[in-house]
Design brief:
The protein is an alpha+beta fold. The protein has four helices and eight strands; from the N terminus they run E-H-E-E-E-H-E-E-E-H-H-E. The protein binds 6-(adenosine tetraphosphate-methyl)-7,8-dihydropterin and magnesium ion.
Length: about 160
């Protein structure tokens, strides 16, 4: 059996009950086959970036998984769908968004999956929670560069 891989998942929601959706998703990710949640960040409230609608609730989870990256993405998308996710257009407000940020040290660039997530380095709503649980992964200069984006601790 393959060794578990450490991966990071970004959680975001801004429709329905976003904090509840993020908490529920953390539980559901931990229930995926061959997967456990090692730790997760606090929940943060953030204004939409390149998106619209109410403020988002965001968090990041570190997981250990034996699923390969494509199967992990597929499982995350099933959780999104079960949470009522609809995709009327790109960056539309959403009940739940689960993005795979990092999968071990893998670099993947296929039509279906890009890892590291191509936009993670520009976004406080990803970098601040990631730095909370894995400070070594976020260079201080990168955090400084996004410090102007409004982000508040929810709990
Ligand atoms: N895909 C490719 N790589 C990945 C990956 N590493 N993780 C593909 C997840 N999916 C990946 O995603 C579209 C396609 O990207 C998928 O079919 C998958 O095969 P989607 O979730 O259906 O659509 P989306 O969410 O509109 O696109 P994406 O790329 O997730 O959007 P972004 O760029 O992540 O932005 N503002 C705040 N404050 N908080 C947020 O959470 N989120 C977004 C989404 C915009 N603004 C936000 C927030
Ligand atoms: Mg997404």
């Amino acid at each position: 059996m393959r060794d578990p891989v450490t991966a990071y998942v970004a959680l975001g929601a801004n429709l329905g009950k976003p904090a509840q959706a993020v908490c529920d998703a953390l539980v559901q990710i931990g229930e995926l086959p061959e997967t456990k949640v090692v730790r997760h960040s606090s929940l943060y409230r953030s204004a939409p970036v390149d998106s619209s609608g109410p403020d988002y609730v965001n968090a990041v989870a570190e997981i250990a998984t034996r699923l390969d990256a494509v199967e992990l993405l597929r499982q995350l998308q099933l959780i999104e769908t079960a949470a009522g996710r609809e995709r009327p257009y790109r960056n539309a407000p959403r009940t739940l968004d689960l993005d795979l940020l990092l999968y071990g040290g893998a670099r993947i660039d296929s039509a279906r999956l890009q890892v590291p997530h191509p936009r993670m380095g520009e976004r406080a709503f990803v970098l601040v929670p990631l730095a909370e649980i894995a400070p070594g992964l976020v260079p201080p200069g990168q955090l400084d560069a996004v410090s102007g984006q409004g982000l508040t601790l929810l709990k």
